[in-house]
Amino acid sequence: MTSEPTPGVAAWGALLKVHATVAPLIDAQLRRDGGMPLSWYDVLLELNAAPDRQLTMSEVAARATLSRTRISRVIDELVAAGFVERHSNPTDKRSAYATITRTGRDKLQKAAPIYLASIEREFSSHLSPTEAATIAAALWRVHAATA
N or C: which terminus of the chain has fewer CB atoms within 10 Å of its end residue's CB? Predict the structure, then answer.
């Protein structure tokens, strides 16, 4: 006999299901209308927001929502597309910097409205402002506790 899941387990299951269904929809929209996958958008967004618009590879891995194993491949793709440049770190030869290029910033700026509209259509429109604020606060609290 299966018992009802605890509220925490139910919330976790809902989070996984929503991510598994919504992220591919946003990715498809960005690919179709923005010319880039969601993984590229995520990395470009983090680089653009960073001081001097650059991060070490380990900083990109820590900030982006991608697995650490995918970061290097995504950075290689962004370099090949001309959206990111890779530079050696003068103070630590074991690490490298990823820097968003002007072309990358332009591409990110053009894709931003598509990304935001996709979030609104696929996610936010199904929530009241109060629900969205509650979910955001709760998830950021969990993130802060585990980061």
Answer: N
Buried b (16+ CB within 10 A) or exposed e, 73-104: ebbebbeeeebbeeeeeeeeeeebbbbbbeeb
**Class of residue 55 by CB neighbours under 10 A (exposed 0-12, middle 13-18, buried 19+):** buried
Global pTM reads: 0.90
What sign does the CA torsion over 32, 55, 137, 10 have? positive
Q: Which of 50, 53, 28 is nearest to 115 (CA)?
A: 28
- Cα 12 to chain center, whole Å? 19
Q: Taking the mean position of all CA atoms in its chain, how far away is CA 14?
A: 19
Residue found by looking up tokens 């983090």 in the block: 46
Closest CA to 77 of 140, 109, 131, 31: 31
Enter the tokens of residue 67.
């697995």
Question: What average pLDDT does the structure give for the chain?
Answer: 94
Q: What is the pLDDT of residues 51-61, one digit of tens each?
A: 999 999 889 98
Query: What per-residue confidence (pLDDT) applies to 2?
Result: 67
Q: Which two tokens stand for residue 125?
A: 């429109």
